Structures are given as structure tokens and as C-alpha cells.
Amino acid sequence: MKKKVIYLAILLLSCIHLSCKKTKNSKQCYQVKVISNYCPKTGSVLVSFTKANPDATPIKDNNNKIVAYQAALLNVPEEFQIAEKTFYVTYHYDAELSKPDAVACPAIFGVVKILVSDSISNEDCNK
To answer: What is the residue extent of each domain of the chain?
Structure first.
């Protein structure tokens, strides 16, 4: 009986730990550069990450070499929706928004992951 209780406790703690675990990238701060507006969602922009980011879509050249990491970023305040604007962002990934039937403007930009911004700043939030 004691073994069952111990195994049950371990299973319960494991489940709690896994369900609460966030991806490490979603709480980090990343620098991005705006490429353009991303339609049709209001407050969304197509961004390129200035460093490799596994949460973004890798963009490859003709030699299959990754040349950029891009994503559509939602909830971007208007003052940051400017082409070539560089800023810092923390975000979370929403799998529902990145389903193939939910992708916005695939004919123009191709398919990229959609991330939802949690905070945006001109200042580096890694400090």
C-alpha cells in the first residue's frame, strides 16, 4: 500500500511539474526587427529575430541554409508597427493561432509561426 501511495505521489508531482512548465524561450526577452504589417489581424507585424529562435519559423535560402528566424507577432502597439523598427519582446506561443487553417496571408509571406506578445519595449529587458 505504501508503494502505491508513493508512486501516486510521484505521478501527481510529475504531472503538476509538466503542466506548469513553460518553454524557456517564452519568458526570455528577444530583439526583433519589423519587416512589415501582417494581415489580416489588427496589431500584428511580421518580424525577424536578430538571433536564432527555436520558437520562430526558420527561413532558408536556396542552399537550405537558415538565413533568418521570422514570426507573426500579435498584440503589437501601433507605435511599434513601423517597418525596420527594432524592439524587445517577451511572448507566448498559441498553438491554436498557428494551425494551418488560421494562417494569415500565406500567399504573400509564406507560413510562419504566430506568437502573441506579452510585453514590448525599446529597452533591452534582459538587463
So the answer is: 24-121
pTM of the entire structure?
0.71
φ/ψ bin of 55: left (φ > 0), alpha (ψ from -120 to 50), beta (otherwise): alpha
Amino acid type, 125 = C
The residues, ordered by sequence, that sit 6+ positions from 18 with a Cβ below 8 Å of its Cβ are: none
Determine whether domain 24-121 maps to CATH 2.40.50: yes
pLDDT digits (tens, 9 = 90+) for 67-121: 999 998 988 999 999 999 999 999 998 777 666 565 555 545 567 888 999 999 9
Q: Which residues of 56-80 are buried (b: 16+ CB within 10 A; e: fewer)?
A: bbeeeeeeeeeebbbbbbbbbeeeb
